[in-house]
Records
---
Amino acid sequence: MSEDFSLELGSIEETMLGPIWARAKYSKLYPELLNDLQAIQIVEKIDYDFTEIAKYLGEWRSLGLLVRARNFDVAIKKFITRHPNASVVNIGCGLDTTFSRVDNGTINWYNIDLPDAITYRNQFIPETSRSKNISKSVFDYSWIDEVDIKSEDGVIFFAGGFVYYFEEEEIRGLVTFLIERFPGGEFIFEGISNLAIKVINRRAKKAGSDIRVKFGIGDPIKLFSNWSKNIEVIDWYTLWARTPINPNWSKNTHKMLKISERFKTGKIIHLKFLR
């Protein structure tokens, strides 16, 4: 390792390591799905034993994290093709590296997360002239004072592994705020079904974990049309629907993939805020 970045076991930073480890490990194996060079470089610098993370995630969950990032990359690249000077806002960023994969040289990027998460992020992914790390909860709407977003240039928000950790009313409040402040903007995020909520929480309880997921999404069009007449679901699909399936993946991965797609447990949802 060229540098020694250690962290305290059990800290909030530790929860940030799973997704970046998965992207680093499995983009080496399957760069045709996602080629995350920055994640690989960062993981090589971290003084941490990833054995338990690797055991917990396994191939199935790790590939899911890779596919989630791939889906976001595709959507963001399409958006900034239409809006080359757009602002992109990464909600609950952790150690996300999307900017390094999609940057067109002219977009402005904002990463929002809790102060401890941003402090740790800054060690590996410092700010640049066009990317800023904001250490606030996205529900503390004063973060709006730290961004310079021009609606006429386009703005897209995205969130992976975030929405389902909060109550529906909290997310509805956030979306309402974004609609009011950024009409014409877009929001793409990962959602999970009510069945997935039950399964995840049951497993967490059995494992003695305090982590719970809360907000499940069935039919996105029905749900969001009830929220506001100013929300349009411009796209939604199951997590794996647009990903080429590799026959060399394990039998368990293929089994879980089929179950996930059949019951629509994971979804990518893309909203537009109508003017």
Note: Residues 59-273 form a domain with the Rossmann fold fold (CATH 3.40.50.150).
---
Amino acid sequence: MEQAGPFERLRGLDNQALTLRLFENINSFHAVPRLRQKLAKIAFAEFESQVPHAMERDVAYLLSGLNLMLGLALSTRDHPGLARELGEFLRRCDSNGLSIHHFLTRSAKDWADIRPKYQESSRAELGRELTKCFPALEVETADLCAGYLLAKALARLVPPFSFHDESHSRSVMALRAQPDLSWNLCAGPADALATVETHFPEIAWRKGCRSRSLSLVGVRLLSQFSPKTASVLKQALGQLDHISTSLVQNRRRTLHTAFFSEMDASLFKFNLHHHATLAGTLCDLFALDLETFRSGYPGLSGFVEEEMRQETNR
């Protein structure tokens, strides 16, 4: 749409920043029942010819998000090119593997179902976005990380909505640390850390993206997880330089920890035995590999997330 149209009042921000705000608005409509009830009442037939493969709900959420940003109700009568514009954007979202319904339901289009043209362009663009967030990251490493994250459904790109006529608009990175977590839109490096540190702990993302060695230690919790158990783990980790993930599987709770020196790993084992004995908590150390570490949730959140899911499913 031309800048002199309904989006003229949104001057001052580029399409990437405005697309980020658009999806935040869409998420607010989905997350709050009171707002969800106010979704735009759309005669979908007006759009169907332009968006033959889109879900009606996608159009409703998209238009509602735009209306919230503009403070007015967009209509095809006042803006004849609106249906075409919405249809083009939704097609681009689907081509990149993250339509609005995917974004809202923690899902994604299978990587194998995305045409090679979009697979290659997504990998190249995601790699560029990673190097913009982490300037010290080598281009080849960024490309490898991008390919891994895309194939594992941990990353997708949200194409920019054409609020303004820009010669080149950057997409918005959508990342998540695990496939069943919600999508996190990245406005800056901090938004990407949970994902990249979980899956690439061998890269010092916070300190110049240099390579580092890992000493992996796994802990199986044999006692019921409780505040006392959490305290034991935190005391054992102390001020040691580490990154942790955790996993709940078949009611078995495990903590996965990557240390960056063998000395810290040995000290953790000693501390854990000491504090667990004092607290009467049963723990069992086991051999850990990088693949298992990657399967966990960031920090201790895996335990909390699992408990919440179990309560929801009851």
Note: The first strand starts at residue 155 and ends at 158.
